[in-house]
Amino acid sequence: NFRPDYDKKPDEPIHSMELAVQGCTPTAYLKSPKKPWGWWEKKTLETLRTKPALECREVIEHPVLVYTLWNGPVVSSMYEGFHDFLSLFEAVLTLKWDFKDVEVLATNLLSANDNFYPLFEAFRRSFAGRGIRHGHEWYKNGTCFRRIALPPSPGLSTLTVNGGRSGQTSCRAPVIRASATFIRGLFPELQQQPQVGTKAAGCGLVLLHRDSGPRTVESYGIVSQVNAMLTTRALAGYNASVFDPRGAPLSRALGVMAKAAVLFGVHGAGLMHVLFLREGSALLELFCADRSRSNGHYRTIAAMIGVSYSFREATACSGFPKGSIAEAVLSIIPKGASLSCGRRL
After folding, report:
1. Where does the chain have alpha helices with state H?
2. Is 318 helix (H, G, I), strand (E, B) or coil?
3. Has residue 118 got a pLDDT over 50?
4. For the segment 141-194, what is each residue's pLDDT rounded down to a tens digit?
5. What is the dihedral of CA 70, 294, 315, 280, to 10 degrees?
6. Distance CA 60, CA 53 (A)
7. Is the separation of the CB atoms in 255 and 283 below 8 Å?
8. In what order do the strands lie in the sheet with 132-133?
């Protein structure tokens, strides 16, 4: 039951959930028995308390996740949005619940705004069985639950633990690869598309487009340089292209990433598409303007999923020497047989 009586019962036990990251050594912070709560776990727990003898006007038999979106209320960022997805994904796996039987109450999600980031389609499909309640659809007072859980803040997720945002993580995290595989499996239409004339796997060199703010480059000019170099170096089987994820269905992004050997672009939330590259692919991250290489978000993710990582840095995004980005892209094309251009999907 949802009761704002934290101050009256400060000694009530609080049940928490911890997840191990395979191959990583826990930091002193994680080993400490007095770990502080994230700010919104505390906020939510202050209003979510249990009472031994409740008058249950309604009993919810199926499992329920109560969650506050990091990227709420409109799910507009791929980076924060995937952290939200991962927190729910890890919670369901840890609790050994069945996705199709789980209902989610997203406490700060607005139903009135339909301009969701494409990633939200993965949320919808994952919990299509019971659905997702929005912020104005809280359960009525007197509602009791057989199984209810509060997943941890995404700020405590596998992607950020052990210095993840500064790029200090170097171990694999199978749960990250599993989550990406799970998302791909939500789109059976990808498997049903005709293969005749389909571009071979491993031939795509994909530049993720940004067209606003100080962190922008001449995407189409850079891609033209890459394609020109491919031709002169007898690498014509490969092809560079620009992918703009804004407004594109998630299924389209998944298809593009599945065929890519290299993903490259300026640091930003869109680089979260690296999750959907195949193992052995490569990521080239460009740092410029207000972001430096101290932002290790995607270096961490690449290490976790088995994607090679490299970067280039300039003070201004217009300051990369002409042809240097194209040269860098060609230098990291994977050489492994399983990723060689020409292998059919």
Report:
1. 28-31, 39-45, 78-95, 120-126, 174-185, 189-192, 219-232, 250-258, 297-305, 324-331
2. helix
3. yes
4. 888 888 999 887 676 667 776 677 777 777 888 889 999 999 999 999 887 654
5. -90
6. 16
7. no
8. 132-133, 103-106, 64-67, 148-149
